[in-house]
Amino acid sequence: MLTSMRFSERVLISMAIITAPASAAPQVPVAAPTAKVEAAALAIPDVRMQRVFPRVKLRRPVQVVARPDKGNLLYVVEQAGRVIEIDANDPEGEGRVVLDIKEPVQDKFNEQGLLSLAFHPKYEQNHFVYAWYTAKKNAAKPDREVLARFTGKDDGTIDAASELTLLEIPDPAWNHNGGTVLFGADGFLYLSTGDGGAGNDPWGNGQNLGTLLAAVLRIDVDHSTVEKPYAIPQDNPFIATPNARPEIYAYGLRNVWRMSFDRKTGELYAGDVGQNAWEEIDIVTKGGNFGWRCREGHHPTEGVPDRSEPSAQFIEPIAEYPRKDGVSVTGGFVYRGTGDPSLDGVYLYADYQSGTMWGLRALGGKLTAEPRVVGGKRGFYPASFGESLDGTLFICGTEGGADGAGVIYRLASGR
Predict the structure, then answer these.
(1) Gap between the Cα atoms of 234 and 398, Å rounded
(2) What are residue 35's phi and psi, to 5 degrees?
(3) Alpha-carbon gap, residue 46 to 358, rounded angstroms
(4) 12 or 203: which leads in pLDDT
(5) Which of 239, 245, 362, 400 lies 20 to 30 Å from 212 when distance is taken between CA atoms?
(6) In a domain, 4, yes or no
(7) pLDDT > 50? residue 217
(8) Which residues contact 165 (CB under 8 A, 6 or more apart)?
């Protein structure tokens, strides 16, 4: 997730636009215009950042989430353990605290804290909210990561006392805590987990189906069993695999920091933070093995000679960038709003250290337009993208350092 290192140089990537081939018959006059139309549709525009909600005082914001029953309300997750409600219809408003769980949240180190929040799709009926956080150890329990359910009140606040723990995962190191919880169109809850931390996956979790680490999990929170306060979807890929955790949806992921569904295609995009050489963007598929720690991006990792080359068992990323361009990827969203047609279908992502923002286009898991630098801001640490109900995209983070002032920007095409 978040790392404290010096800024890297931003290297512009030249734009690659895929165009339709010209007709073999030169006398047909429609070939060139058709190519131009298709090229324009595939172009990736520059993206400008417009500061919004300047009067809301934020401390280390790490996520912006839209409340599903009220399109004007945005909930901003602060890493230390608070959630701030912002009314998008009140651009000069100061927001209000609707949840404070700083007491149980461990945020001693910069990859710990309250990391993600998700509203149940039927929030209007059940008022359920789900959170992923690192918890303080006590006499009974060690450091651990917690998936918990909270209940919202009629006044819009979230009741901290209503916490129901759904899942706890022992945390062997302070870093690599993964950190996105969200719901798919299938109604199931998806959760990304890190590989347990330290460096080079010393516990071998990346290729171990017997652990919930280094994976994307998928559970049914609308049902429970005698053993667990949730159920396992019957089509989960490893439900019948001996010694495998049935919650696993995909694995071989080092530390996914932000994943999101394309609301049009249903594809699950993820930004997976690299070890020391490559940052990558993956499209997560059911049962997929994404290669960590045998692979980092498209490349073999050091010290794994037997399984480091590409093979049918590993799914390669759709995009990557080297350490000279950034050191910690922040996965984003595919733009599907109606207010900015030139951005439709563009997946935006950024780097937490360099502040650079890229855009790419993909179809069916394959690139149709290569990644290009579309914007960003030096001195801005982009912790997370966010999406409103109407498809407007936001990006939040800090300025002036990892512990600087918290800010939110709205994204739009143009300079």
Answers:
(1) 41
(2) -60, -40
(3) 9
(4) 203
(5) 362
(6) no
(7) yes
(8) 146, 147, 148, 229
Residue 235 lies in a domain: yes
Residue 12 pLDDT class (50, 70, 90 cuts): very low
Calpha distance 216→292 (Å, rounded): 13
User: CA-CA distances (angstroms) from residue 375 to 59, 96, 181, 290, 357?
Assistant: 24, 31, 27, 28, 5
pLDDT at 307: 53
> Is residue 245 predicted with pLDDT exceeding 60?
yes
* Distance, CA of 367 to CA of 215 (rounded, Å): 24
Q: Are strands 380-387 and 61-66 parallel, antiparallel or unpaired?
A: parallel
pLDDT given for residue 37 in this prediction: 44
Taking the C-alpha atoms of residue 83 and residue 63, their distance in angstroms, rounded to an integer, is 9
Angle at 235 between CA 233 and CA 240, to 5 degrees: 95
CA Rg, the chain, in Å? 21
Indicate the DSSP class of residue 314.
S
Are the C-beta atoms of residues 51 and 377 closer than 8 Å to each other?
A: no
Residue 114: give its domain's CATH number.
Answer: 2.120.10.30
Q: Please state the rounded mean pLDDT for residues 10-17.
A: 31
Nearest 10 degrees: Cα torsion 283, 284, 288, 291: 70
The structure tokens listed for 317 are 């990323």
* Arithmetic mean of pLDDT over the chain: 90
Residue 280 is assigned to a structural domain of this protein: yes
Number of domains forming the structure of the chain: 1
Whether 117 is covered by a domain: the verdict is yes
**Rounded mean pLDDT, 115-124:** 98
Looking up tokens 């918290």 gives 406
Which range among 200-204, 245-249, 306-310, 390-394 shows the weakest confidence by mean pLDDT?
306-310
DSSP for 116-153, please give it.
EEEE-TTHHHH-EEEEEEEE---SS--SEEEEEEEEE-
Output the pLDDT for position 309.
Answer: 53
Q: And the tokens for 309?
A: 């080359």
